[in-house]
């Protein structure tokens, strides 16, 4: 799957951050302190000039009391069916990581994501940690999943289920993208 500039509209992201910040009566400086990022970075993001990392998006979302999925681009869902060409997407250019939301939204009890993990990508330095239970199924490629201190190598067709409240991270040590299907309950993205 090749990502295009429209997959990650920086202007739309900036508008979403600014709207959420203003709706909460926060100044740029207050949000910066709450998210532990610089006010300059937030200003750049809000003007559509910044290219924030996934960690920065997580920090902003937490400080605003929103799920990261609030920033995912795509048309609004119209019911139970999510068409292949109409998935909400988050493309993070810094690592060419692509998330696609397969569930209509995050209002239910279940979240399903399709994630393209590029060769060489890892979040070892910044593991994921959130409430709930998570199941990862590898659709293609090969990927390492580390939960707590235990490493598991998944090959195509393998799955792993774990408590998401334990620090977990992924590493694609291969030369090919890995495509994973992640199921999380309750939704936390």
Write up this protein.
By secondary structure, the protein is an alpha+beta fold. It has 2 domains: 5-71, 434 Repressor (Amino-terminal Domain), CATH 1.10.260.40; 108-185, Sandwich (Jelly Rolls), CATH 2.60.120.10. The protein is built from 4 helices and 9 strands; from the N terminus they run H-H-H-H-E-E-E-E-E-E-E-E-E. The chain has helices at 10-23, 28-35, 39-46, 54-64; strands spanning 88-92, 97-101, 111-117, 133-140, 142-147, 150-155, 159-163, 168-171, 178-185. Strands 1-2-3-9-4-7 form a 6-stranded antiparallel sheet, with no helix packed on it. It has a 3-stranded antiparallel sheet with strand order 6-5-8, with no helix packed on it. A hairpin with a 4-residue loop joins strand 1 (88-92) and strand 2. The chain is globular and about 45 Å long.
